[in-house]
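To close the chapter, one final illustration. This time we ask the reader to focus less on the individual chains and more on the assembly as a whole: which components sit near each other, and how the overall shape emerges from the parts.
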Amino acid sequence: MIRLPLVLSFSAFLFATGVYGVLARRNAILVLMSIELMLGAVSVNLVAFSQALGQITGQVFALFVIAVAAAEAGIGLAIVILIYRNRETINVDEVNLLKW
Amino acid sequence: MSAQEYTFVVLALVGVVSAVRLVTARNVVHAALYLAVTLATVGGVYLLLGAEFVGWVQILIYVGAIVILFLFGLMLTKAPIGREALDNQRRGVAFLVGLAILAGLVFLFREAFPWDGPRIDPEVGTAEAIGEAIFSRFVLPFEAVSFLLLAALIGAIVLSRKDEGS
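The assembled structure is written out below.
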């Protein structure tokens, strides 16, 4: 028997850490890793509420989140490698082709 | 506090410390390994909550596949070592935003879920129940996800392929 607020604070901390990582990092792969951290935090909440309410729907959504995260990581890394091939850098603040 | 809660606190502390190390690491490969530790502890938390299928899927897909994908990405791109090279100049603002989000979330769920409220009873998360749910009520989203994965696969191949003709 685990208290719900314990799990919720764990996931809130993971999410806040992920937000910090997305904002503070300039290497694109590290930004992608921080996004994975945020997705993981959301999935923790989904699973915790699913178990607390005794309904399976939250866990099905957690599985979908994992699948979408895998797709996002694959496409994101392909784009990052393409940018590196063209610009010799993957710092997100130096990639400014679409910046007005 | 029960034994499960102590185990959870230990797991959560390991996960939180390695998450903090992930966003402050000076070496990108170390960051990827800390990501593996964090996601493995998240998988352990799923197992502890009784969601066995999601827990093992998390460990297999994240630690086994996605982190390896990130390591390949790191090998194919040259990243400098050092905090100034990996972080931008807005670290303080980012820290404040993260802190504000943490405070907001804690404030919200302290109102909604009191400490002595309902507890998590590890009951429902067997593979059988998840399989039944996916292949009856969620069969259309499931097919959509498989189509999305196929599209992502083809997209990644098309994007990272070298153009022979041009």
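Chain A touches chain B through 68 residues (CB under 8 Å). Chain A has a mean pLDDT of 89. With these observations in hand, you are ready for the problems at the end of the chapter.
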